[in-house]
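Supplementary Text 2. Reproducibility record for the structural model of the 109-residue chain.

All settings were left at their defaults, and a single model was retained for analysis rather than an ensemble. We include the record here because the model underlies the residue-level annotations in Supplementary Table 4.
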Amino acid sequence: MILQPVPALLPGVSLQTSPAANPLNSGTSADSAGSTFEGIYQAAMNVLNETNRYQKEADRIQLDFAAGKTDNILSVMLAQEKAYNSLNFTVQATNKIIESYREIMRMQV
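Retained model, structure tokens:
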């Protein structure tokens, strides 16, 4: 059986580690830690912006349908489902991040 790697959920964030990016490495600099956080932050902001864009697009298409500008119910339903799925993913990811943070805070040092 051949195992294939799972693609990253957040584009722009690499799961590959290098010796410079390893926080346990004694040669770690503040710059590499900052750039790793910056990459994660930018990826998270991209996901939030994309979710917002899907919501706005779904609202616009729904208003166009209600105003009679379009009669394509399929595009309305697809836009609503895309927005719903994107929002659901974002909420679940946020909940996982909060749960992870709480777990870290419960750890005894």
